[in-house]
C-alpha cells in the first residue's frame, strides 16, 4: 500500500498502472474512513470479468483530502476528524493499492483565491443541502474535477448516501465530457439503520441513540405510504413532527424527483421514483439521509432483432440484478414447437386460434437459476432451440391470436414487477411503462457470424455465412413489417449496437444504463458485475 503525498508521486503511480493495462478505480474521501468508505473500496477492488482472457484486477486509489472549498465559514473544517495512519491501514485491508493524501498547497499550488471553479447547475446545487450550504457543491465539484484531471480514472465510485453530491458529480462528468464511469454504491448502514458518515463520530452516546430515529422515521414513512397515505404535504408534516419529537432539529424534509431534484407535488406513479430527503441536526451534528420510493420493483424491456444475443445477455443481466428473466422468445418458440406437433398449417391463423386453448405454457427457473420451459407439463427447454423451430417461429409469432395470448400471459407475469423481459415488442406493447427500454442490435454480418458459431458449438450443420445473412435479413424483414406487433424500437428506448462488444461488456453496459435510472438503495445489486 503506497502513501502518495505529492502530485508527482501520484502521476507516476497512475502511469505505472496504465503500463500494466489495469483499470484505475478511484474513491475520493475526506478521510476518517468508516465502513461506508470501506464498502466503496471493496466494490472498487472487485475483479472485473473479461471476455476469454484472465479476469482484470483494477488498481484502487483512495484520496484523503479535507477540501476547504466545500466548507462554509461556520462549518467544521477546523475540527473535521483526521487519522491518516488508521485510514491507510483500513483502506489497504479493504483492497486499496494507494492513498493520495496531498496538502492544500500541493493540490492547489496557485492558492484558492483565484482558482478556476466548477459551478454545477444551480437547480441541482442550490436545493436540498445547498439551501443552507452556499458554495458547498461548487467546492465539491471543483476539487473532484481537479482530482479527476490528475488521476484520469476509469471509474469513480461514490456513495448513494450523499445522493445530491452523486447527482451533481454525474452531471459535471457528463457536461465536461470526462471519459469515465461514475458508479453510485448502496448506502452502508449501522445495525440500527444510521447511515455511515465520518460525522457520526461527533455524536455523544445520547445523541447517537437519538440519531437512529432518522432512518427509523424514514422507514415508517414508507409504511405510511404502503398503508395508503397519498398526499405529500401531510406526509412531510408528519415526518417533520416525528423527527422533532425524537429530539432532532429538521433542516429540511422534501420529496423530490431523484435525478432532477425538482420538488414533487404528488406521489410518484409507476414507473417514476421519488426521493424522500431529510437533513437534521442532532445536537450540533448535521446528519442527512434519504429513502428512494419505488412504486413497484423495476421492469426492464430488451427488444431487438433475432440473433442479437438478447437471451444470453438478458439472462446474465437478470441474474446480476436479481430480476426474474422473462424469455418471451422462448414462449414463442414453445408455441411453435407445440403447433408443429398438432398437424396444423403454421401459416393458418384461423386453424391455430382454437388450438391455443389446449396449450398450457409455463416458465420456471431451476436450482442454477436457468430457465425451464414446459408445454402441457413436458419439459421443452432444449427442443425449442432446434433450428427447425427457429425457422418457423416468426411465422407463428406474427399471428394476432398467438400474440394476444402470450402478451396477456407476459403482462400477468409482470404485474408485480422485478423482471427483465426480452423479445420484439416488450417496450412497445407488453410493458410500455418499463423503467428501462433497450433496443439491442447488431449488424446482419455480425449476427450471422454469431449464429454460425452457436450452431457449430451445438453440433448442428453450419450453413455458409452468406446464406445465414440472407436468412437473418429475411427474418428482420418479416419481423419488422408484420401487421401485428412489428419489431420496432420504442421511442424512449436506448439503442445498443453490440458489434465488436464482448458479452461481458454488453452486460456491464446494461447494468450501467439500469443504474442511471434505479439507485442501488432502491434495488440492490445481487451479484458483482
Ligand atoms: O463525499 C466526500 O467525502 C467529499 O465531498 C468528496 C467527494 C471526497 C469531495 O471532497
Describe it for me?
This protein is an alpha/beta fold and 529 residues long. It has 3 domains: 2-185, HUPs (Rossmann fold, 3-Layer(aba) Sandwich), CATH 3.40.50.620; 198-293, Pantoate--beta-alanine Ligase, Chain: A,domain 2 (2-Layer Sandwich), CATH 3.30.1300; 299-515, P-loop containing nucleotide triphosphate hydrolases (Rossmann fold), CATH 3.40.50.300. Helices cover 40% and strands 17% of the residues. It contains 19 helices and 17 strands. A 6-stranded parallel sheet has the order 1-4-3-2-5-6, sandwiched between helices. A 5-stranded parallel sheet has the order 11-15-10-16-17. Strand 12 (361-365) and strand 13 (371-375) form a beta hairpin. The mean pLDDT is 94. The site of pantoate has 10 residues, from strand 2 and helix 6.
According to CATH, the homologous superfamily of the largest domain is P-loop containing nucleotide triphosphate hydrolases
Number of strands: 17
Beta fraction: 15-25%
The portion of residues assigned to helices is: 40-55%
For the record, the CATH class of the largest domain is Alpha Beta
Amino acid at each position: 500500500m503506497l502513501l502518495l503525498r505529492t502530485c508527482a508521486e501520484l502521476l507516476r503511480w497512475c502511469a505505472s498502472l496504465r503500463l500494466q493495462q489495469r483499470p484505475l478505480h478511484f474513491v475520493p474521501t475526506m478521510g476518517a474512513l468508516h465502513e461506508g468508505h470501506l464498502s466503496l473500496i471493496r466494490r472498487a477492488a472487485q475483479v472485473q470479468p473479461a471476455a476469454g482472457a484472465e479476469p482484470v484486477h483494477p488498481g484502487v486509489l483512495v484520496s484523503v483530502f479535507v477540501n476547504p472549498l466545500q466548507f462554509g465559514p461556520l462549518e467544521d473544517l477546523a475540527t473535521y476528524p483526521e487519522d491518516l495512519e488508521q485510514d491507510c491501514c483500513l483502506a489497504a485491508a479493504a483492497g486499496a493499492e494507494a492513498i493520495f493524501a496531498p496538502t492544500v498547497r500541493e493540490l492547489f499550488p496557485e492558492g484558492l483565491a483565484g482558482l478556476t471553479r466548477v459551478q454545477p447547475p444551480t437547480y441541482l446545487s442550490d436545493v436540498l443541502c445547498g439551501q443552507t450550504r452556499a458554495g458547498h457543491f461548487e467546492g465539491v465539484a471543483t476539487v473532484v474535477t481537479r482530482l479527476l484531471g490528475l488521476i484520469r480514472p476509469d471509474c469513480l465510485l461514490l456513495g448513494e448516501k450523499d445522493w445530491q453530491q452523486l447527482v451533481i458529480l454525474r452531471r459535471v462528468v457528463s457536461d465536461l465530457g470526462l471519459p469515465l464511469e461514475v458508479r453510485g454504491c448502496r448506502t452502508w448502514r449501522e445495525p440500527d439503520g444510521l447511515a455511515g458518515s465520518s460525522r457520526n463520530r461527533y455524536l455523544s452516546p445520547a445523541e447517537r441513540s437519538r440519531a437512529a430515529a432518522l432512518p427509523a422515521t424514514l422507514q415508517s414513512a414508507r409504511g405510511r405510504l404502503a398503508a395508503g397515505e397519498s398526499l405529500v404535504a401531510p406526509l412531510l408534516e408528519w415526518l417533520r413532527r416525528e423527527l422533532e419529537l425524537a429530539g432532532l432539529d429538521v433542516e429540511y424534509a422534501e420529496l423530490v424527483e431523484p435525478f432532477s431534484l425538482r420538488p414533487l407535488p404528488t406521489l410518484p406513479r409507476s414507473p417514476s421514483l421519488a426521493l424522500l430527503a431529510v437533513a437534521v441536526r442532532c445536537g450540533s451534528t448535521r446528519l442527512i439521509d434519504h429513502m428512494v420510493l419505488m412504486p413497484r420493483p423495476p421492469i426492464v424491456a430488451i427488444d431487438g432483432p433475432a440473433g442479437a444475443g438478447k437471451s444470453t445477455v438478458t439472462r446474465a443481466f437478470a441474474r446480476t440484478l436479481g430480476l426474474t428473466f422473462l424469455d418471451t422468445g422462448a414462449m414463442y418458440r414453445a408455441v411453435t414447437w407445440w403447433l408443429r406437433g398438432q398437424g396444423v398449417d403454421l401459416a393458418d391463423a384461423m386453424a391455430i386460434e382454437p388450438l391455443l386453448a389446449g396449450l398450457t405454457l409455463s416458465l420456471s427457473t431451476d436450482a442454477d437459476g436457468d430457465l425451464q420451459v414446459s408445454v402441457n407439463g413436458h419439459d421443452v427447454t432444449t427442443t425449442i432451440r432446434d433450428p427447425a423451430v427457429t425457422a418457423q417461429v416468426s411465422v407463428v409469432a406474427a399471428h394476432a391470436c398467438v400474440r394476444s395470448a402470450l402478451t396477456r400471459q407476459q403482462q400477468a407475469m409482470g404485474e408485480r414487477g422485478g423482471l427483465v423481459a426480452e423479445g420484439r415488442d416488450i417496450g412497445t406493447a407488453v410493458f410500455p411503462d418499463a423503467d428501462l427500454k433497450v433496443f439491442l442490435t447488431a449488424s446482419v454480418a455480425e449476427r450471422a457470424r454469431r449464429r454460425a458459431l452457436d450452431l457449430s458449438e451445438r453440433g448442428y450443420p453450419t450453413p455458409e455465412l452468406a446464406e445465414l445473412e440472407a436468412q437473418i435479413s429475411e427474418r428482420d424483414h418479416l419481423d419488422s413489417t408484420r401487421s401485428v406487433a412489428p419489431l420496432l424500437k420504442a421511442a424512449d428506448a436506448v439503442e445498443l449496437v453490440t458489434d465488436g462488444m464482448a458479452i461481458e461488456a454488453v452486460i456491464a453496459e446494461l447494468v450501467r444504463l439500469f443504474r442511471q435510472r434505479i439507485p442501488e438503495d432502491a434495488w440492490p445489486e445481487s451479484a458483482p458485475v
